[in-house]
Fold this protein.
Amino acid sequence: MFGWNFIAPATDTWKGLAGALHNAAASTFLSEHYDVPKMLFALLIGLSFGFLSDVPALEPGLSFSARAVLRVGVGLLGAQLGLAQVQSLGITSVGGVTLLVVATILCGALLSWVIGRKLAFGLLSGGAVAICGASAALALSSVLPPHANREKDTVLVVMTVTVLSTVAMVVYPIVSQGLGFSDLQTGFLLGATIHDVAQVVGAGYSVNDEVGLVATVVKMLRVATLPLVLVVVHFCFRNSQGGKSVFPWFLLLFVFLAVLRSTFDIPENVIRFLSDLSQWMMVTAISAIGVRTNLGAVLKVHPAFIFVLVAETLFLFAAALCFGSTLIS
């Protein structure tokens, strides 16, 4: 019932898995040398190898990477969450961030309905914008019901939110400083709106250390909502496969690691190792998804889909701007 039978025999998976790992290594190298998100590199490299999706020997490994490796990577995200840091924000900020996440997801659902798409696309795009960009998109994709366009939608969302997050990393600090925001207000705004964790850290610490710390903690609070959102989405669609409902077991790993880190004094090198392992797994997964996706179909996507993601991002920024302006240092 927990879906532990996802592991295929190693003889069926190693070729495709090796290819996905190779792409992940190349993406990490390029990211470290050119300061571009590794998720974006992994996706682009994967898409460039799309012709390999027609090789039968690679399909089991690519499928394994896109599903099982992805889910373990999502579970390991829990090691990055320090609940003590989240509590230090205070009830006002915690409540504000939670409302922003919920409101943005509902905004995505509404906009998806407006353009004639199903609820799943709204949850996928809204959740990615509201929580943690590409990582949230991949996590949500893993609990949404199978669909012919699911991987194409995931690729579109990952590409778009990564680009939007990069723009936000540059523009948002300038806007907050131009508005005369305090360090607390600036940190809250950056942490509550920029999609990618690494880019939140980069934007925050580019202002000063205090802004960087507040932004990082606020961002971790957004990440903390991920398991709850995944559970809600899972149960919303639990009857979509003829009544079969496999519990997303990797959420137990997420919660376990988050509680473990908050309860015990875990060495920083262990936390860093689990965080790096999570990133490697998710980069491997998005690379495999890229290989399995038809690039031509993605490029022909209707402009309205891009509009939804841009509108969600602007909605989140406007809402966070209003809330952040009420905070007092």
Summary: The chain is about 75% helix and 0% strand.
